[in-house]
């Protein structure tokens, strides 16, 4: 039933990013990304293994562990990060399958806050704005700082609610 009320653009594009994420076959996290110029959709991507290579559901996750020293409230703290290295992240796939000319001045809607590597790539891609929903606290402070330095708008849609059919349990 249509109530006549239209979704705002942020909700519309984030809904699309979540729908795109349903193509992912990663058992740890489904991530979708959407490239938008103004109000025009230019590309979509999701996380997954390279084409023609067994994915996480077929071959299992390929977990890499790393440790990072951070300073929190004046204290040094070692944090452990686990990442699946079998998959190409949604943001990386978006950059691989879109043209630089289309990215200049564009926005990226992504279901999850970009990790450090993806943030670095996005920072050099020509985009001017990143909008995300789910936080990725392992890299938040350094990603946010870099986006400020680059002048890239970096914002969270914390009150956004994804379409129910797209929700999965996220493993950290």
Automatic annotation (TrEMBL):
It comes from the Bacteria. InterPro entries: APOBEC/CMP_deaminase_Zn-bd, CMP_dCMP_dom, Cytidine_deaminase-like, dCMP_deaminase, dCMP_deaminase-rel, Deoxycytidylate_deaminase_dom. Its cofactor is Zn(2+). Pfam families: dCMP_cyt_deam_1. Keywords: Hydrolase, Metal-binding, Zinc. Signal peptide: none annotated. Residues 8-154 form the CMP/dCMP-type deaminase domain. The keyword Metal-binding applies. The keyword Amino-acid biosynthesis does not apply. Belongs to the cytidine and deoxycytidylate deaminase family. This is dCMP deaminase family protein. The lineage of its organism: Bacteria, Bacillati, Bacillota, Bacilli, Bacillales.
């Amino acid at each position: 039933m249509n109530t006549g009320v239209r979704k705002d653009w942020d909700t519309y594009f984030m809904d699309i990013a979540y729908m795109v994420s349903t193509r992912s076959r990663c058992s740890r996290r489904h991530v979708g990304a959407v490239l938008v110029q103004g109000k025009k959709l230019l590309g979509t991507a999701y996380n997954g293994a390279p084409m023609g290579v067994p994915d996480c559901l077929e071959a299992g996750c390929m977990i890499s562990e790393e440790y990072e020293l951070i300073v929190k409230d004046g204290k040094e703290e070692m944090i452990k990060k686990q990442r699946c290295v079998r998959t190409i992240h949604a943001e990386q796939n978006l950059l691989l399958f879109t043209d630089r000319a289309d990215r200049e001045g564009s926005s990226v809607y992504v279901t999850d806050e970009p990790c450090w590597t993806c943030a670095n790539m996005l920072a050099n891609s020509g985009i001017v704005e990143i909008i995300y929903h789910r936080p990725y606290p392992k890299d938040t402070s350094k990603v946010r700082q870099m986006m400020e330095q680059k002048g890239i708008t970096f914002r969270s849609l914390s009150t956004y609610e994804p379409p129910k059919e797209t929700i999965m349990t996220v493993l950290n």
